[in-house]
Amino acid sequence: MMVIEILIDWFPYLFSGIVLTLGLVASALIIGVGLGLPMALGQVYGSLPVRTGISIYVWFFRGLPVLVLLFLFYFGIFPALGFDFPAFYVGAVVLGLWGAAYQSQVFRGAIQSISEGQMTAARSLGMSRFQAIRSVILPQAMRIALPGWSNQYPEILTESSVCYAIGVAELLTRSSQIVSQTYVTLPIYLACAVIFILLSYVGTTGIHMLEKKIEIPGFGPGGS
Prior knowledge:
It is built from 9 helices and no strands. It has 224 residues and is mostly helical. Helix 1 packs antiparallel against helix 2 and helix 1 runs antiparallel to helix 8. The longest helix has 44 residues. The mean pLDDT is 89. One of its GO terms (biological process) is amino acid transport. This is Amino acid ABC transporter permease. It is a multi-pass membrane protein.
C-alpha cells in the first residue's frame, strides 16, 4: 500500500516528466522531417558537392552515439559558438539532427522508388522540375515513406532518456529523483518502464492507423 501511495503522491511530478519527454520527441521529429526531407531531395536531385556534403552529414550523425552527440554539442560546439542554450533545447536539437540523418535515407529511398517516367511526364506537361517534385513526386513519396519513417518515433522516444545526462528533467530523470527521495527503487523504475512502453505503443499505433488510411494500393503490406 505504501508503494501505491508513493506512486500516487509523486505522479504529478512524474507526469511533468512525461510531458517533457513527449516535447523532446515531438521537437526532434519536426526537426528531423524539416532537415531530412530537403537532404533526401538533395541526395536525389542535387549536384555532386551537395550530395557529398549531405553524405558526410549522414555519416557523421549515424556514426556517433546520441550520448556522445549530446556531450559534444552541450559542452563543446554550442559553448564554443557562444550559445548558452537550456538543456532541453540542446536535447531536442541533437535528437532532431540525429534523427534527420536516418529520416533522410527513408525519404531518399521513397523518392527513388517513384518511376523516373513520372518526372518525364510531368515535365512534358509544362511543369518545371520544382513543380514536378512538389506536385507529383513528393505526395507519393511521403506516403510510401511513412512505414519506414514511423520507426523513428519509438527510436527517438527511447533515445530521449539519454538526455538525463545533460540535466533534462524528462521521465527517467524524474524517476531517478523520486527514487533518491523515497528509496523505493523497483516500483518506480518499473512504472517508468511501463510508461515508456505505453507511450511507444500509443504513438506507433496512431502512426500505423494513419499509414493504413493514406497508403497507396499496391505499395507495402496491405496494398492491393
